[in-house]
Amino acid sequence: MQEKMPIAIVSDVVCPWCFIGKARLETALANHGLTDRVAITWLPYELNPDMPPEGMDRTAYLNAKFGPGKRKEIETRLSEAALESGVTFNWAKVTRSVNTRMAHMLIAAASTVQRGSEMKAALFKAYFQDGRDIGDLDTLVAIAGELGFDQNAARDELNSDELRESIIGLEAHAQRVGVTGVPFFIVNGKLAVSGAQPPEVWTQVFQQVMQGAA
Questions:
Q1: N or C: which end of the chain has fewer CB within 10 A?
Q2: How many domains does the chain fold into?
Q3: What average pLDDT does this structure show over 39-67?
Q4: Would you say the C-alpha torsion 206, 209, 213, 214 has a positive or negative sign?
Q5: Digit-coded pLDDT (tens) for 64-93
Q6: Pairwise CA distance, residues 193 & 180, whole Å
Q7: What number of other Cβ atoms are within 10 A of residue 70's Cβ?
Q8: Does the structure show a pLDDT above 80 at 46?
Q9: Is the distance from CB of 163 to CB of 37 less than 8 angstroms?
Q10: What phi and psi, each to the nearest 5 degrees, are found at residue 25?
Q11: Contact 22, 9 (CB under 8 A)
């Protein structure tokens, strides 16, 4: 059996470009018949590590970060970039900027049973399309339940100090190796791809990987 090509993806679940980047990668993999020939690992990154646990109003957050009145402009640009990827954002519903540490813990827990990508997709949808507060413990437990996970087990994972420390350690490692923005992709353990690259860039990446293997 052919070994799967590893792709590690450093990203955050409230990062719109990470949502777009995921979709663009999936399109490229499908175009090249590689969907079942890659093993994806999701690595945590917090765009807002200092966000209070209860989160904050999204407009206030964006005003503080980018200057007053920029929200509409940012969201329009993102929606245009997302269109060709088949990604939709429901900005009217995204009212909170949230702390994502527990969301990363839930992805890590799902990854132990090879369902990290499924959980990541569910969290992107929950936040950007359904406007759910994915920084909230009960909301995360409910999302886990909707995917068929045991809700009590999910709650235990989200209260686990060991898992929390593991996420903090992985984030620190990403910073140490120079990841300063997301999405950030590490292909086959050696090729780094930064940003939400279009499928044609991925074509070049896959060619490089194949040539390297040959």
A1: N
A2: 1
A3: 94
A4: positive
A5: 989 988 899 999 999 999 998 899 999 999
A6: 13
A7: 12
A8: yes
A9: no
A10: -60, -45
A11: yes
Interior CA angle at 66 toward 20 and 46, to 5°? 50
Dihedral angle computed from the Cα positions of residues 72, 78, 84 and 89, in that order, rounded to the nearest 10 degrees? -70
Q: Coil, strand, or helix at residue 191? A: strand
pTM of the model: 0.95
CB 163 within 8 A of CB 105: yes
CATH number at residue 78: 3.40.30.10
What tokens were used for 27? 């399109």
Contact 123, 134 (CB under 8 A): yes
| Three-class DSSP category at 104 | helix
Six token digits for residue 113: 């049973």
Strand partners, 198: none
Rounded distance between C-alpha atoms, residue 142 and residue 155, angstroms = 10
Peptide bond before 183: cis, by omega within 30 degrees of 0?
Answer: yes
The secondary structure of residue 213, as a DSSP letter, is H
In the beta sheet, which residues pair with residue 56?
A: 97
Cis peptide before 198 (omega within 30 of 0): no
Radius of gyration of the chain (CA): 17
Collapsing DSSP to helix, strand or coil, 135 comes out as: coil
pLDDT in tens, 34-44: 999 999 999 99
Length of the chain: 214
Q: How far apart are CA 144 and CA 119, in angstroms?
A: 8
